Amino acid sequence: MITLEIEGADGPLRFFSTSATLSTATDTALEGLHLETFLPADESTRSRFGGR
Fold first, then answer.
1. What's this model's pTM, rounded to 2 decimal places?
2. How does pLDDT run across 2-18, given as a tens digit for each residue?
3. pLDDT digit string (tens) for 21-31?
4. Strand partners, 7
């Protein structure tokens, strides 16, 4: 897990990152595709992006 904190005008934005790699995709164009997703790490960040 990787954490990311960005200082914004309204205070810090805190995220954590998850990643996945498709190594056995049936479509060769997707073989080895790496996906990284940043998700809110706290309620303040979540609410600033309209999360529930």
1. 0.67
2. 899 999 888 999 999 99
3. 877 757 777 77
4. 12
**For the purposes of burial, counting CB atoms within 10 Å of the CB of 30, is it exposed (0-12), middle (13-18) or buried (19 or more)?**
exposed
> What six digits make up the tokens of 46?
């979540």
What DSSP string runs through the chain?
-EEEEEEETTEEEEEEEEEEE-SS-SSTTTTT-EEEEEEESSHHHHHHTT--
Calculate the CA 34 to chain-centre distance.
Answer: 13
Query: For residue 49, which phi and psi values (nearest 5 degrees)?
Result: -105, 15
Q: Of 4, 2, 15, which is closest to residue 48 (Cα–Cα)?
A: 15
